[in-house]
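WP5 quarterly update. Target: Protein LIGHT-DEPENDENT SHORT HYPOCOTYLS 4. Source organism: Elaeis guineensis var. tenera. Length: 200 aa.
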Amino acid sequence: MEPADSPSSEGFTPTSPNASASSSSPAAGSNPPSVPSPSRYESQKRRDWNTFGQYLKNHRPPLSLSRCSGAHVLEFLRYLDQFGKTKVHTQMCPFFGHPNPPAPCPCPLRQAWGSLDALIGRLRAAYEENGGKPEANPFGARAVRLYLREVREMQAKARGISYEKKKRKKPPPPSHQGGRPDAGPSDRPRSPPPATGATA
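Structure tokens (predicted):
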């Protein structure tokens, strides 16, 4: 299989920041309609989709999108590992489980789990935006989800870090008096009147 265009540093496809600016510069004196530029997410999603399409073309034998399965997505993710920049220690490495190794080691570089997880999310959305059926989406296949889970757990152990998502802290509920929320002055329980002496 011939390699596809080499992705760059966990972002997968090189881009030229000045390319779009130079090609879209309006002529002097003209007033072209203002077209909102795509967001960073949309731009990255389009680049990822083009990279995957190039990968399918370079596949031997060539593979059409309609015949792409979860197994082919896993091949693509493993192919991307050669462009990774995240050090993943092996169990034989003395720095296994060390979040900040004090010295270099020969352990391989891989794509970080977070990069792969975000990539699959973008490709999953791009697949359906380009006419694919949600029930046939290879990027949402169970094998892909299991692979990402294994990568997360393996890298967490090897790098000594945690990938657990931080839960947002909810604001504390307002203090209630008498067990009833928002009790107004008239709603609060009143103290009984002080006892008075017996009348004759």
